[in-house]
Design goal:
It is built from 8 helices and 6 strands; from the N terminus they run βαββαβαβααβααα. With 299 residues, the chain is an alpha/beta fold. It folds into 2 domains: 192 residues, P-loop containing nucleotide triphosphate hydrolases (Rossmann fold); 98 residues. This is 17254_t:CDS:1.
Length: 299
Amino acid sequence: MNVRNILIIGRTGSGKSALANLISGTTLFIESANSVSKTKNIQIEVFPINDDTKFRLIDTVGIGDTGFTEDEVLYKLAEAVYAIRNGLNQIFFVVGGRFTKEEIEAYNLLKSVFFDEKIDKYITIVRTKFPDFNNIVKCDEDTALMFNENLELSNLLEKCNGVIHVNNLKYPEETSQKSRERLREKLLDYLITYQGTYKPNNLDELNKMISGNLFVCQKNRGKEKDLSKQIADYSRGIEDTAADNNELIANLISILESIEKEREIIRKEISDHEKEVAKKTKEFISWKQTINEAAKGIT
């Protein structure tokens, strides 16, 4: 079955996760009720569109989220790059209002370091929180305002696939769900229409550098999850054991402590490999930026 990768990026609070839920027809993606990001890790969900095609939605952490260290940002960026290692079909650049300088800088970084000039035709601006999404005149007026904001944004809008206006209300905000259903059909039709696959050499280069460490992180996270479940089970066992059964309680505590030590070792391994991924990603970005600056000097 054909799996198409859809990368969703945007500022914290722009409605990325709400958009992902709208497209998937689920509530799997964690939405926030305010400008504080709930997406602290990239979230990936796969769902079928028809008998032949599945969509893999990749919801990234928010641009400008100040809750992360530099290493954490670099690691999460690397995770997103790794998730689209087999190719990218569409980027939804989500905007909840006017574009910010931060968003434009993030786009330029993605384009110059991780992608290339060809990425423009795989990018669509999704203007969220727009109640007049069904009013063509209002949508055109809003797009015109974006064009007139600044030269960089105007260049982006001229080269990309254009702007889609949506009002991705959450389930509690619209009981009839008719608006969500219409929007979902609109977005799915749009995504199905664009059949191309984009796979720049830059992604291959970075993934070669980080894939081994990322694989260890993902494998160890599975182990950590299993160990955490065992810890919870043994903790309940201790609580449920009669207070006077000292020998059984002592045995359970001994096993629990052993599992906790093993989990701490796993967590340390995860942390070490995450730092290595962040380090290699930072080196890659610095290397690509140096190459780009040198190329500008030649031209």
